[in-house]
Every structure is written in structure tokens, then in C-alpha cells.
Amino acid sequence: MAKRDYYEILGVSKSSTPDEIKKTYRKLALKYHPDRNPGDKKAEESFKEISEAYEILSDPQRKAQYDQYGHVSDQFRGGGGNPFDGSGFGDMFGDVFGEFFGGPRRQRGSRGEPGADLSYNMDMTFEQAAFGYSTELVIPRMETCDSCHGSGARTSKDIEPCRVCGGTGQQRIQQGFFSVATTCSSCRGTGKIIRTPCAKCHGRGRVNVRKKLKVNIPAGVDTGARVKLSGEGESGINGGPSGDLYLMINVLDHPIFERDAYDVYCRVPISITQASLGSELEVPTLEGRARLAIPAGTQNDRIFRLKNKGISRIHGGGKGDLFVRIVVEIPTNLNRKQKELLEEFGAISEEDSTPMKKTFMAMLKDFLS
């Protein structure tokens, strides 16, 4: 018997859009679905007919062939046969009806679940963060039981498929026209029943351990950095992959140095004499001491830059710099002789020896006039 026209079956025209075709198909499929019409052979045939039509008209290439050649040797159905047997149709059916009929049954029990990720708060000294650091940590975590190898059972003979869900880990509950999938209440989604649990893990498949890990922290990390150790989190369940371990870095304050990205700052006090006459200082760096020439007349808060004396950039590209801020220190608790010499110095000093004061006084005079 000649097949009916696919457009006639769905009640659409050749000019209908893909969305219009899909919308019409869904309405008809809901109307004739076997779950909604139990025992109705006519409805079942109609459902198969509209499903076959939609399979062709929803595929642009097949639709174009059908528009040109019509029904020819079932070539549009991937080689003929029942459209419900084709993998292409199965994908289409799941896409359209998943939201109505619960989608395909999924073997939850046969799939491993990934282990949990772990985080560890790690304090580091300023120098450890700057130069890198290797250490050993003890991390509490769940690992696969070495007695039962994660099965949770004493032996393999003590495991059997769950009879309630048939080993799928899911139960299907019929609610009128709809079918709802829920986690199996008997096996709790594992798909299996353990008759005799493992004596070491008591059926959990995992045990609590304190794992020693050697970790290498790269140079240049700073507070807030997160170092990932792949696969060092908790072991997975049912053969699932292990989680990851994240080291949350906190760099402790330093008594001398402060950090700004990869640059380092420090404050170095000098006397009035050193600032006035010039001097050569030994200043601290992360790698020891360095010589710094202070020119005569150096003012308070002047900054000197020492290139490549900062912190290594974590992704390469050299180091930051060290910035030395000069603090001219005013003497206190002067003795009588010191006071006399300073008073004498003040009496013989000219304004030219204090250029900042001269400039300020000129500006002040203009402001007050």
C-alpha cells in the first residue's frame, strides 16, 4: 500500500518552518503516544506514522531529498526497517520527549562518581613565596578501600544487582500520563545490593586516611593564589575519578619588606648628615645586602630603584624590582654641644642651601599678597 504524504500526516506544508513542524509533531505525538492510549493499536500505528514523518522532515537533507524524490526505497530512513530501531531516530525521540517521559533510562549504578575536591589553607613566609617552597603536608581524605578495592563488599560474590531497580539505580513511577524517574530507595542509586559488607570500610568502599604529600610551591605566589594538585582530592566512588586538592596560599607579613605584585619596597633611615653630604649605604634585599650610593642633598622620601631585586614572576619573564625609600631621620635628645653646633649651622646657612624652603616661601608670599 502506498505511503501517505509526510506533510499530510503531520498536517503541515512544505513552507512550514522547522519550529512549526516540531511544534505540530509534539502535539500529535502527545495525542497518540502509547502510554496515553494503552492497548489502542490504531493510536500506536498513528504514533509510528507521525514519528517516521517527523524523522524525515526534521532533517534538512532528508527533507530536501523527500521533496525532490518522494518515497524511494526507504533510503530516507537510514536503510529501511522500523524507525524506532535507528540510532538517529532514538536521538531525535530523546530530544523531543525527554521532558515529557523522563528521557532514556540511565545506568547510574554502573557509572563512577567523581571524588570531592579538597582545599588546604597554607601559610608561607615572605621568602618562601618569593623563592618557591617544597614541603610535606598531611592531608585527611577519603581513599578507595584497599581491602575491597572500592566495591564495599567482602567478596565479589557478596554483590548482586538490586531487584527493585534492576541494577539501574533508578525507579520509574507512573503518575497518570507522565513517567517520573527517581533514585532507587532500595540501593540508593548504586544499582547493587551488598549482602556482606567489607569489614574494613563497612560497605562504603572508601576509608578515612591521612595522606602525606610532597608539594612544590612555585616562586612568585602571593596571598590569594590557588595551587591545584590534580587527582589529590578524595577518591571517586564506583571507579570514578579522584577529586583535586587546592592549596589556598596566605603569605605572612615581613618586618622589613612590603610587596606590590612582583616589586618589593623597604624603608631605610639615614641621618641629616648622610642626606646632606651624601653617603654609601648597605641596604637589605631578598638575597642579602646591596650597596646603594646616596647623593648629597638627598631629600626625605626619595625612592631609589634596584632592578631585578624583586620577586620572580610566576609565569616567567624575570623579576620585579626593589624600591628603597629614604627616610631622613631628625635627631632627638640632643646634648649641649650638638645644639650649639646646629645653632651655629643655622646662623651661617643661606637660603640657597634649602631650595625647597626657598620655593615654598616664595609661593607663600604670593598667596598672602
Structure description:
Mean pLDDT is 82; it is low at 73-110. The termini are far apart. The chain has helices at 6-10, 18-32, 41-57, 60-69, 87-101, 126-131, 272-277, 336-348, 355-368, and strands spanning 118-124, 133-144, 159-161, 170-175, 178-183, 192-194, 206-217, 226-229, 245-251, 258-260, 263-271, 279-285, 288-294, 303-306, 322-329. It is 27% helix and 27% strand. It has a four-stranded mixed sheet with strand order 10-11-15-14. The protein has a three-stranded mixed sheet with strand order 1-9-8. The protein is elongated. The chain has three domains: 6-101, Helix Hairpins (Orthogonal Bundle), CATH 1.10.287.110; 118-251, Chaperone, DNAj Protein, Chain A; 258-368, HSP40/DNAj peptide-binding domain (Sandwich), CATH 2.60.260.20. By secondary structure, the protein is an alpha+beta fold.
What's this, in brief?
With 369 residues, the protein is α+β, with helices and mostly antiparallel strands.
List the helices and strands and how they pair.
Elements: H1 6-10, H2 18-32, H3 41-57, H4 60-69, H5 87-101, E1 118-124, H6 126-131, E2 133-144, E3 159-161, E4 170-175, E5 178-183, E6 192-194, E7 206-217, E8 226-229, E9 245-251, E10 258-260, E11 263-271, H7 272-277, E12 279-285, E13 288-294, E14 303-306, E15 322-329, H8 336-348, H9 355-368
Parallel strand pairs: 1-9, 11-15
Antiparallel strand pairs: 2-7, 3-6, 4-5, 8-9, 10-11, 12-13, 14-15
* Strand line-up across the major sheet: 10-11-15-14
- The span between the termini is 113 Å
Low-confidence spans = 73-110
| Helix amount | 25-40%
Going by CATH, the architecture of the largest domain would be Ribbon
What structural category arises from helix and sheet content? Answer: alpha+beta
Give the C-level CATH assignment of the largest domain.
Mainly Beta
3D shape: elongated
Q: How is the main sheet built?
A: 4 strands, mixed
Global mean pLDDT: 82
Q: What number of domains?
A: 3
SSE pattern: HHHHHEHEEEEEEEEEEHEEEEHH
